[in-house]
């Protein structure tokens, strides 16, 4: 099997640097990021709050099947992603597979993808 590299970054700048180096490779390795809601949430209310992680969790929380903020989950981006099966739907999955445009991505790429497709990047 091919070697697997696992690395941890403490700062956004370290992630950007590593992704830039991965993009320079002649092949596209598979990559995954584990990032907090704070950086990825597109909900307009959440973006204006101080504690984004908690606000994002509250915006998507439901009580007895009814969203606290309206809609199915209270977040139109999450509702749309779930409605279309994003990113696991076959027509979307290829974007993240080896050779796809998002096979190597950083935080800004995920946020831009979420904004463009109206899907939750988290």
From TrEMBL:
InterPro entries: DinG/Rad3-like, P-loop_NTPase, RAD3-like_helicase_DEAD. This is RAD3-like helicase DEAD domain-containing protein. It comes from Alexandrium catenella (Red tide dinoflagellate). GO terms for molecular function: ATP binding; DNA binding; DNA helicase activity. It comes from the Eukaryota. Residues 9-122 form the RAD3-like helicase DEAD domain.
């Amino acid at each position: 099997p091919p070697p697997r590299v696992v690395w941890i970054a403490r700062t956004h700048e370290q992630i950007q640097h590593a992704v830039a180096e991965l993009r320079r490779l002649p092949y596209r390795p598979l990559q995954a990021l584990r990032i907090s809601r704070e950086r990825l949430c597109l909900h307009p209310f959440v973006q204006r709050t101080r504690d984004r992680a908690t606000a994002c969790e509250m915006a998507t929380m439901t009580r007895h099947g009814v969203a606290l903020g309206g809609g199915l989950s209270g977040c139109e981006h999450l509702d749309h992603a779930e409605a279309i099966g994003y990113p696991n739907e076959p027509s979307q999955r290829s974007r993240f597979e080896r050779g796809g445009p998002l096979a190597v991505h950083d935080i800004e790429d995920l946020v831009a993808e979420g904004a463009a497709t109206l899907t939750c990047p988290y």
